[in-house]
C-alpha cells in the first residue's frame, strides 16, 4: 500500500489541527491510544518557515506517523516553498488551512477569509501540489463565511479547487463569521449543516471528503462514515481522548488487537516524559495534554489536580504522574 492509500485509510478518523493544543507531545499521547488515526499538527504559517526559518515548528516524533502538517498562507510561491520543507521532513500529507476565523489569521489573508477567493486557493494548491511530488496536498475549509450562501459557495469552491488537482477536502460544517464572532464563538454559534456536507459527497463522488464540527463519539463517527469518506474530531479528542481514541482502531479501522487501557497509556508515556525532560522540556508542557484521559471516571478530579498543581514545580517528573495515576482506580466496579 502506497503512502497516499495509507493516509486515505487513516483519514477515516482524524484529530483536527488545534492551535496551542495539537503539538508534538499531544500527538505522541494520542498515538499511544490509536495506531491508525490520522494526526494533524497545529497550523504552521508558511511565512514563519520560509521567511522566519522557524523549522523547529516542523519537529515531530517518528512514532506519530501517519501525520499531516497544516500550513497557513495565501502566497502560492511561499506555500510551495513551505510544502517542500514539510515533504523533506517526512510528513505524510500537507494541508492548507481555509477555515480558521481568527483576527490574526485574517490579517495575513489566509484561513477562512480564503473562502471568498477559490481561484487563489486553486493557485496555491497547484503550486503546493507541484512541490509535494508524491505526497498528497489537501484542504480544510468551512461551508462559507459571513453572508455567503453555503448552498452556492461550497460546491463552487470544491469544483474550482479540485480542478487544481486536489482530491481530498475536510469540511467544517459551519460558516465562519469573520465579523462579530470570536474564534471561540465561531466553533459553537454558527449552526451545523451536516446535510449540506453529505450532499457534497453525493455531488462530488470522485472526491475524498471528510466532515468536521461538533462530532464527539465513535458512534457519531460511524454514522457519518455511512455517507462520508472520513470524520475529523477536534475538541472532544482533546478533552476526552479516551472516549474518542481508545476504541477507534477496533471500531473504525477493524483492528483485532486489543485496545490499551487508559492506565496503560499513561504508563506508556513514562519513557517519553523522561526523554523529553532530559532535553529540557518541562513536565507541564507534556502533562497538560493528559488531563482529560480519565474524564467521567472516579478519581479524575484528583488526577487533574495533582498534575495541574504539581507539574510546574521544580523537580516534578514521572513520579508525580505515577502519584496522580494511583488516585484513579484501574478497574471500575460494576453497578
From TrEMBL:
EC number in record: 1.3.1.91
Cofactor: FMN
CDD domains: DUS_like_FMN
UniProt keyword list: Flavoprotein, FMN, NADP, Nucleotide-binding, Oxidoreductase, RNA-binding, tRNA processing, tRNA-binding
Residue span(s) of domain DUS-like FMN-binding: 15-316
InterPro entries, A to Z: Aldolase_TIM, DUS-like_FMN-bd, DUS_fam, DusA, tRNA_hU_synthase_CS
Gene3D superfamilies: 1.20.120.1460, Aldolase class I
Active-site residues, Swiss-Prot/TrEMBL: 100 (proton donor)
Function: Catalyzes the synthesis of 5,6-dihydrouridine (D), a modified base found in the D-loop of most tRNAs, via the reduction of the C5-C6 double bond in target uridines. Specifically modifies U20 and U20a in tRNAs.
Family: Belongs to the dus family.
UniProt xrefs under HAMAP family: DusA_subfam
Name assigned to this protein: tRNA-dihydrouridine(20/20a) synthase
Organism of origin: Aliiroseovarius pelagivivens
Phylogenetic classification of the source organism: Bacteria, Pseudomonadati, Pseudomonadota, Alphaproteobacteria, Rhodobacterales
